[in-house]
């Protein structure tokens, strides 16, 4: 879809947010809830890092993009911290005793499938692969053009 937009004659700006948190029903918030409520941290072998960005920072950048004269640009909206899935859970947990559950990717996919079958929309199977793939994290252009200033990851 991005290529079609780029090839069109209309003015465009593309926003590419990283993993968004701070709302309800998103994957990051679900992982935070597991860690905070139950002290469960998913431990994967994936070296991929996440750069969670707060929903309010994404909304702010979106509003600024609408008023921006800088069309024909793509902006990465990533949080300032790079965290593995395990680090994300460890930051979120506030329990004295934390259970680190070794979680192979097939188990994450299966769990997401079962959750989807039960009506959950917070994580679907194909989202696991998107969640754990390398994504751009350099938000320099968004900082310069849109005044994007994401808050540090907090709970």
- What's the number of helices? 7
Q: Pick out the low-confidence regions.
A: none
Portion of residues in beta strands equals 5-15%
- Per the principal axes of the C-alpha atoms, what is the gross shape? globular
Helix content: 40-55%
Assign the structural class, choosing from mainly alpha, mainly beta, alpha/beta, alpha+beta, or little secondary structure.
alpha/beta
H/E element string?
A: HEEHEEHEHEHHH
- Biggest beta-sheet profile: 2 strands, parallel
For the largest beta sheet, what order do the strands appear in spatially? 1-5
Mean pLDDT: 82
- The radius of gyration computed from the alpha-carbon positions, rounded to a whole number of angstroms, is 17 Å
Quick synopsis:
The chain is built from seven helices and six strands; from the N terminus they run αββαββαβαβααα. With 155 residues, the protein is α/β, with parallel strands linked by helices. It has a two-stranded parallel sheet with strand order 1-5. A two-stranded parallel ribbon has the order 2-4. Strands 3-6 form a two-stranded parallel sheet.
Notes on the protein architecture:
The chain is globular, with a radius of gyration of 17 Å. The chain has 155 residues and is an alpha/beta fold. It has helices spanning 2-7, 27-38, 55-66, 85-92, 105-117, 125-131, 140-146; strands at 13-17, 20-21, 40-43, 53-54, 73-77, 99-102. 42% of the residues lie in helices and 14% in strands. The chain has a two-stranded parallel ribbon with strand order 1-5. Strands 2-4 form a two-stranded parallel sheet. It starts with a helix and ends in a 9-residue tail after the last helix. α2 (27-38) crosses α4 and α5 (105-117) crosses α6 (125-131).
